[in-house]
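Q: What structure does this chain adopt?
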Amino acid sequence: MRALATLLPFFCLFACIRIPQTTALDAGLPRILVDGYPLHVERVGSAQQPPLIVIHGGPGADMSYLRSLDALSDTYYIIYYDQRGTGLSAREDPSGHSLERFVADLDAVVDAHSGGRPLRMLGHSWGAMLLVAYAARHPQKVSHIVLAEPGMLDPEAAVDFITQLKASQTIGQLLGIVPALIGALAVETEDGYERGDYVMSRMVGSGKGPPYQCEGDVLPEGAFGRAGYASFRSMLGPVLDDPAAFQFRLATGIEDYRGKTLFLSTQCSFIGFDFQEHHHLHYFGSRAEHRLLKGQGHNMFTIRPEAALQEVREFLRR
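A:
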């Protein structure tokens, strides 16, 4: 790798890669301040409409892949945010990242948009995990939650998740990181996180087919704008190395949440309908609705999103 790094000036004779700047470097990006930290926030629709907060997955992904939800802005004021250290939110030392910090950030987004009223919220994957933790801690602030395939809400689900994920990995998938690592040598850097973020963006955006998608399904080019590698490693890295590191029970206290709940699960994802039924639905009992999206995979809002959007629209009306 050191030898390849010496070729960087040669690469840049042709093209240096620039990835999007964050709120730390681009003063024009919309944001809210959370204890002085500039959290990137985007809003779509009229502020006179009911708010809907959207929570992206990862940890370490960004809001970009969920922008099909803009279609709901005819009825709702859609609020997206890039979680701490991801997307276009500022980069920082991730040693201070924790579940409670991410819950507090989400609470700041809620308070900035709720007007003191309970809100509708939607989380995908890791974002659904975070939403469960939030609703369990702040049940009075939420009226509707859409949980799109949360990965793991307790240690038992974490073991099953990681075991199935590792069993599905192939040598070809592992080697797929090589072109991204080479490309990263040509990435211009200002905050010091760009090259890791470039590699992660390429890798999460390259997902196709099982275990997350249906056979033949491919994420569209540029589905992810700028992932946050350091945030991903700080939050999920230890669990990938050893699932026993996941000791959270995110649904503790969810019995105090009295709002409406929709689980959205897919046919092709390994954490789809059966996984959710086995590991997660029991926390919500008969209060939760569970919908199966046939012929769909985990990125239900990115690949052929129409069915998922229709389910969300109908649920939020209730």
